[in-house]
Design goal:
Elements: E1 13-14, E2 21-26, H1 28-33, H2 38-47, E3 56-60, E4 66-72, H3 87-90, E5 95-100, H4 105-115, E6 131-133, H5 140-158, H6 166-179, E7 183-188, H7 191-194, H8 198-204, E8 212-219, E9 224-230, E10 232-236, H9 245-248, H10 256-270, E11 275-286, E12 298-300, E13 306-308, H11 316-328, E14 334-339, H12 343-349, E15 355-357, H13 361-374, E16 379-380, E17 398-399, H14 408-417, E18 426-430, E19 434-435, E20 445-446, H15 451-461
Parallel strand pairs: 1-6, 2-4, 2-5, 5-6, 9-11, 9-14, 10-11, 13-17, 14-18, 15-16
Antiparallel strand pairs: 3-4, 7-8, 8-11, 12-13, 15-18, 19-20
């Protein structure tokens, strides 16, 4: 069974190879020492090709047809492990294969696949891209699985809210579950109050699309219990503490946590890992209407802790609080939550390096190892309990928006920690979910962050 696709697209790979054109991926040393194909070397010397990082030179045949390509890796290819992604956007359409490259087959193919991503759902004209023959010693099945997970996250984030509101996100969630035979349940609207999810209902009640809690179960009881929780704010106006127009431009991506845990769930299910998987996604639109929640309101959470609303734009931690408390009740072995939660995380580490928070040192070490191995960046930030006092409120147990604006990503993580008390290991990721500039392995737009590393860690933990 092929991996699930939210948007159907042709594979960036070809299974043929008989008539494919060669790509010579080379460093400057290959040119200087002449250790490449003589025809390619001759053309490189005539054209002054220096194999600079990401450079491309097409090679003609003697009769003027396209005969292949030279691709520059620069002096240190290890510094750009997914550089081959650039080939997917710069080569002419057609079938290609890598003739020579000082890269591992898996990294070469995964980089190319990641770079092949296009979001052209709303384009009137769509152009065909090149396809690459996967090297024989690459794990083609797992590469396609990882690409499917990453592409799902990107697709969901890139889709504008008029086509990715709570109703459509639920539909995508159900479709993913159905593809892998997972069980789903959904709690919607006023039923959230009846089932004790008051904060999810509070944040989403002002929207025309009712708030909801999505849940998926897959795997076998008795296996390692892994629960994934993702923030599903399909659009965030900021509520009554409304955002300025410039800050709303990317708020379709505020469901990036949900998109990423769905991409990770796809990888886990497609690989048939021996886990007892549970995925929980609270889904809302933080809108403005007569019944919107207000600054100064106080609400009781599922956990029983009361929360004072000091800013309606700090809504993500509210819906996560109920979802995490619900997840925690089953005492999973590993609980992962992902959320586009704070601007403070971006100030600290920028858009491309998501911080994670955990009080499990071994888990932190294992995740760091997986991050390095997969070139999927992340960085551990401290759950510094000295700041726990900052989330106390004068009239309630907690505030959703500590005053002062200091250590915002840490205080948000400490807020969430109050709702996880029984789980064996918990980790919180404060992701950006967006690539602000084009890179070899991704265009500008929605981005999967940390899920390839998490997939690697979970696979390894089962050995």
């Amino acid at each position: 069974m092929a991996p699930y696709q939210y948007i159907e697209r042709p594979s960036p790979f070809t299974a043929k190879g008989g008539s494919s054109l060669p790509i010579f991926a080379v460093t400057p040393a290959h040119i200087e020492t002449g250790t490449i194909d003589p025809v390619a070397l001759d053309w490189a010397e005539k054209a002054g090709f220096k194999a600079e990082t990401g450079s491309l030179l097409l090679i003609p045949t003697s009769d003027g047809h396209l005969g292949g390509a030279l691709f520059g890796l620069g002096k240190n290819p290890s510094k750009a492990p997914f550089l081959t992604g650039k080939l997917a956007r710069s080569l002419p359409a057609g079938e290609w294969h890598i003739e020579t490259a000082p890269l591992t087959a898996n990294r070469l193919a995964l980089g190319y696949g990641l770079g092949s991503y296009r979001f052209d759902r709303y384009k009137s004209e769509r152009s065909a891209g090149p396809t690459l023959l996967i090297p024989q010693d690459a794990d083609a099945t797992d590469i396609k699985r990882q690409l499917a997970g990453v592409f799902l996250a990107r697709d969901l984030i890139n889709t504008p809210t008029n086509d990715m509101g709570p109703v459509q996100l639920e539909a995508a969630f159900r479709a993913l579950a159905a593809h892998y035979g997972a069980e789903t349940s959904v709690i919607t609207g006023a039923e959230l109050l009846d089932r004790n999810f008051p904060l999810v209902h509070t944040v989403g009640r002002a929207s025309a699309d009712a708030p909801r809690l999505l849940e998926m179960r897959w795997g076998k009881k008795g296996h390692r219990r892994i629960t994934l929780v993702g923030k599903g704010v399909c659009f965030d106006t900021g509520g009554l503490d409304i955002k300025p127009a410039s800050s709303m431009l990317l708020m379709k991506k505020d469901m990036g946590g949900a998109a990423n845990v769905m991409g990770l769930a796809l990888m886990i299910m497609d690989a048939k890992l021996k886990v007892d998987l549970r995925v929980i996604v609270p889904v809302v639109e933080n809108s403005i209407s007569a019944n919107a929640f207000r600054p100064g309101d106080i609400y009781r959470s599922r956990k029983g802790l009361t929360v004072q609303i000091d800013n309606t734009d700090a809504e993500g931690r509210l819906i996560l609080a109920d979802a995490l408390a619900y997840a925690d009740e089953e005492e999973p072995d590993l609980l992962v939550d992902m959320a586009t939660l704070t601007g403070a995380a971006r100030v600290a580490l920028g858009p491309d390096l998501p911080p994670f928070f955990t009080d499990d040192d071994q888990l932190a070490d294992d995740l760091t190892d997986a991050s390095i191995e997969t070139d999927d960046p992340m960085w551990r930030m401290p759950l510094y309990m000295g700041y726990d006092r900052d989330i106390s409120a004068r009239l309630a147990d907690l505030t959703n928006a500590p005053s002062g604006g200091m250590a915002g990503s840490i205080t948000a993580a400490l807020f969430l920690k109050r709702f996880v008390t029984q789980t064996k290991s918990w980790v919180h990721f404060d992701i950006f979910g967006w690539a602000q500039s084009e890179r070899p392995h991704s265009p500008i737009g929605g981005e999967a962050q940390a899920i390839r590393a998490l997939y690697q860690h979970i696979r390894r933990s089962l050995r």
